[in-house]
Specification:
This protein is of the alpha+beta class. The chain has 14 helices and 12 strands. A hairpin with a 2-residue loop joins strand 1 and strand 2.
């Protein structure tokens, strides 16, 4: 009954409430859009970094007698990963890499490469399929001779799909070696992660640098959900330690691991790092952006609370006779107070539903804007466009916050309304 009365009063006073409803709708929509875009930018950054560094979580081993990163206990590591309790693993990929010393030759020209990445094509296909291809793609790689190059490299060397190229890289022992490859795909990515990166078959790269075919530099774990990367990294590190493998202590960033390399140990010791450990400076940037978003959220809903407070003070004074009549007919003081609080709750519900729908509409419009021409912004984009993620927990927290803000704004006027004396209210002009 009281919900019906609250709904009827809300409808009767809709002209008075319209500004508050619009403020709640637009405020909630702006917050929804901002938080969804920040979450999307962070995910794109982590996904791009995972391709560059070798996984959302990467495992590699190191011995005191060998400065080369290698994985020697894959069976134990995979068992530890399975026992770590992490779900939503998208792929686990072996990777061999060459950093900063490779060159790609075509038609008498050469271009330096920042990363030469060797992968097992079948295992890595879910990851490589996320790239936006201008020509070809992983589906065109049928042998060890295929290579995927970035659009920046293809432009610099005037490469086309099917062109024969020569890849040069130093062998593990030191001398330079070359291999003939065929361009099997050209992907669009001018970001720092992929502009001068090429992907090729791992066994072919091992052959090029004279690394035994069964060896590789790191085991990369790619996740479906990237919000809890560091927590999952710690779980895997602990699981490796419990399995009997020697591990480096997991710290706040990659520097914590680098500082441990001066220690002395026997045999192989494994490091477990996340992409966020490599991107710790950008992670700090996102943390600052999130703080600004939360500050804006608190400021906006503080303004809404004050607006609700002032509006309800006016409404209570205008409805003094109505309140007096209900009290004279036997309605208890608490029910009078509850009536106004329920009205405020219904008002907030309209704002949340309307703001969510408007936010979704805004996000659908924003995600279709092509921003691939913005140099340096590519690391935050998915195939040249913005993407977004709405997490239910964040949406629920925002919804509870806006409801609490509006109900809190109505609380003091509702206390005044419950203390109105019926006879005095009925005599009021």
């Amino acid at each position: 009954m009281i919900f019906w009365l609250a709904g009827r009063n809300l409808n009767r006073q809709k002209r008075r409430y319209v500004l508050l409803v619009l403020a709640a709708i637009f405020g909630f929509a702006i917050v929804t859009i901002a938080q969804a875009l920040v979450a999307g930018l962070a995910k794109n950054l982590n996904d791009g970094g995972s391709r560059y560094y070798g996984g959302h979580i990467l495992v590699h081993g190191r011995s005191n007698t060998n400065n080369l990163d290698l994985v020697k206990d894959e069976a134990l590591i995979r068992t530890a990963i399975a026992q770590s309790g992490i779900d939503q693993i998208r792929a686990i990929v072996r990777r061999t890499h060459v950093y900063d010393t490779g060159f790609l030759f075509f038609n008498g020209e050469r271009r330096p490469l920042r990363r030469i990445i060797g992968l097992d094509w079948s295992a890595a296909s879910p990851v490589l399929n996320d790239l936006s291809y201008l020509a070809g793609g992983p589906q065109n790689v049928f042998s060890k001779t295929g290579i995927l190059v970035s659009s920046q490299t293809a432009k610099n060397l005037d490469l086309r799909l099917g062109d024969d190229v020569i890849l040069q890289a130093p062998m593990v022992a030191g001398p330079i070696n070359t291999i003939n490859l065929v361009v099997a795909g050209i992907f669009r990515d001018a970001s720092i992660f992929s502009a001068y990166t090429v992907y090729m078959d791992r066994s072919a790269l091992n052959e090029l640098i004279r690394l035994p075919e069964e060896d590789y530099n790191n085991l990369g774990i790619y996740l479906e959900e990237t919000r809890d990367i560091r927590a999952n990294t710690l779980k895997i590190s602990q699981a490796l330690s419990l399995s009997g493998l020697k591990t480096f202590d997991y710290g706040k960033d990659r520097n914590h691991y680098m500082n441990q390399l001066s220690q002395v140990w026997d045999g192989w010791r494994y490091a477990v790092l996340s992409v966020e450990d490599h991107l710790y400076q950008l992670r700090s940037l996102f943390e600052a952006i999130e703080l600004v978003t939360w500050f804006f959220l608190a400021l906006m809903f503080g303004i809404i609370t004050i607006g609700v407070l002032n509006t309800y003070r006016i409404i209570v004074r205008e409805r003094v006779k109505e309140i007096g009549t209900m009290r004279a007919l036997g309605m208890k003081r608490q029910r009078i107070s509850n009536l106004f609080l329920i009205e405020a709750f219904l008002l907030s519900s309209i704002g949340i539903v309307g703001g969510t729908l408007l936010g979704f509409l805004g996000l659908l419009l924003v995600q279709n804007i092509d921003l691939s021409h913005l140099s340096g912004f590519d690391i935050f984009l998915y195939r040249g466009k913005l993407s977004w993620n709405i997490y239910f927990e964040t949406w629920l927290f925002d919804a509870l916050l806006v409801s609490s803000s509006i109900v809190l704004g109505a609380w003091l006027p509702s206390r005044y309304a419950r203390n109105i004396i019926p006879c005095e209210a009925l005599r009021a002009e």
